[in-house]
Amino acid sequence: MIKPKKYKLDLDGFKCPVPVLKISKKFKEIKKGDILLVFTDDPKAEKDIDELSKNINLKILKKKHLDSDKMHFKLEKY
Q1: What are the strands, taking DSSP E only, across the chain?
Q2: CA–CA separation, 39 vs 7, rounded Å?
Q3: N or C: which end of the chain has fewer CB within 10 A?
Q4: What does the pLDDT look like over 41-52, one tens digit per residue?
């Protein structure tokens, strides 16, 4: 079994709609089973990424609030 590759996107400082656009672009570049780690301080990111997951082959494996304004997402392409 091939181990999935992990990619990282640091989107701190970017506000809606930029994080979703950058995630969508990266998902076109990676392969099925690969993992994308996303860090963001966009207050709308949680809702936007939830919506995005319904429209593309994106599975949210983990979402975590790092502090009051930062979040971390672990996403998988399926």
Answers
A1: 6-10, 35-40, 58-65, 71-77
A2: 11
A3: N
A4: 999 999 999 999
Q: Is the separation of the CB atoms in 58 and 75 below 8 Å?
A: yes
- pTM (two decimals): 0.91
Counted residue by residue, the chain has a size of: 78
Q: List the domain range (segments joined by +) for residue 25.
A: 6-77
CATH code at 64?
Answer: 3.30.110.40
Q: Is residue 48 part of a domain?
A: yes
Do residues 44 and 11 touch, judged by C-beta distance below 8 A? no
- Within a domain: residue 72? yes
CB 53 within 8 A of CB 59: yes
Strands 6-10 and 58-65: unpaired
